[in-house]
């Protein structure tokens, strides 16, 4: 492969040509050309291919940034933002966070405490909104708690899920390539390491569960990543991953305005068939691979992009309506959910 250059606004991001699908190795056709980063302002124009194999359907960035320049893509990423919106929204987020903790404690057998009466009462309201329940379950990675079980979250970002998993009773730790996110997590008393999973070289059969939330799409080689997850899992161990769904309703509706494209940070976008194939190639038996049932934020942000408005934006009523829509779409056709949830198991 030859290097290419993507130069804009006085900055240079070196790129490499990627003509082959990371799942099946087939060629693809360009479906989007000269798209820009409308979320965090990374300079350049980017092209996206779609795999020509009907049973694969993977989308990927071509050319894509080289590994040495990846840090430039995340200089203004959401994990670097300390702003939390208005006082009302901060209070609402705190109540919602406590409601999720209470809900996941009941559902997954955790031992979370200190959430308060209001948090416990508000957690029952989640039963009125299946889309919000799907969001709550995702924030606990849909895993029943194994007391003392070792869990690794790869790409923990702001650290909220990792904190919750520890509070629920997991012996949980995290890996993150963002130094700022690692320092913040350490300040909160979390057990974390800086680097990528392959470089850190955990011993074989170290963990009972390995989880990730919207990490696979950022990797140039998700297959190698899943194989490493398989290696470090104990026999019978579980891998859980969330990632945008290339076949999502929002993608079909909004096209190049779909927030799931997120160039140039999202290097690969998978379908359920393609992601299942990668997991099975890594050795996993796939227990589930389909829509997660959540997606209100993706739909709302795509709507804002279509209208040329600032993203991220917030509307509590709008997001609640879209939470119902995202869940309903997934019920009708799980292939059209906004994101994929894959659960794989290592054989005993």
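^ structure tokens above, recovered residues below v
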């Amino acid at each position: 492969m030859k290097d290419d250059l993507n130069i804009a606004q006085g900055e240079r991001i070196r790129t490499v040509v990627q003509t082959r699908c990371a799942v099946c190795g087939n060629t693809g056709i360009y479906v989007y050309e000269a798209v820009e980063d409308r979320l965090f302002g990374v300079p350049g124009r980017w092209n996206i291919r779609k795999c020509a194999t009907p049973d694969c359907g993977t989308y990927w960035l071509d050319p894509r940034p080289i590994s040495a320049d990846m840090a430039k893509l995340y200089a203004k990423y959401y994990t670097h933002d300390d702003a939390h919106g208005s006082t009302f929204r901060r209070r609402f987020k705190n109540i919602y966070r406590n409601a999720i903790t209470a809900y996941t404690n009941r559902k997954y057998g955790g031992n979370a405490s200190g959430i308060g009466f209001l948090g416990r009462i508000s957690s029952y309201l989640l039963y009125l909104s299946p889309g919000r329940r799907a969001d709550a379950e995702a924030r606990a990675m849909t895993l029943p708690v194994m007391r003392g079980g070792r869990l690794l979250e790869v790409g923990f970002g702001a650290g909220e899920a990792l904190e919750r998993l520890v509070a629920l009773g997991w012996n949980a730790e995290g890996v993150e390539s963002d130094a700022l996110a690692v320092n913040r997590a350490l300040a909160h008393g979390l057990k974390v390491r800086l680097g990528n999973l392959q470089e850190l070289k955990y011993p074989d059969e170290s963990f009972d569960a390995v989880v990730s939330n919207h990490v696979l799409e950022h990797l140039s080689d998700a297959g190698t990543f899943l194989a490493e997850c398989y290696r470090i899992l104990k026999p019978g161990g579980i891998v859980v991953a969330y990632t945008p769904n290339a076949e999502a309703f929002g993608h079909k509706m909004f096209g190049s305005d779909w927030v799931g494209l997120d160039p140039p940070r999202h290097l690969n976008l998978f379908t359920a068939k393609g992601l299942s194939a990668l997991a099975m190639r890594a050795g996993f038996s796939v227990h589930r691979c389909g829509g997660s049932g959540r997606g209100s934020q993706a739909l709302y942000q795509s709507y804002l992009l279509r209208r040329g408005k600032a993203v991220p934006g917030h509307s509590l009523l709008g997001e609640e309506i879209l939470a119902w829509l995202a869940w309903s779409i997934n019920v009708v056709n799980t292939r059209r959910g906004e994101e994929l949830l894959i659960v794989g198991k290592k054989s005993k």
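The chain has eleven helices and 14 strands.
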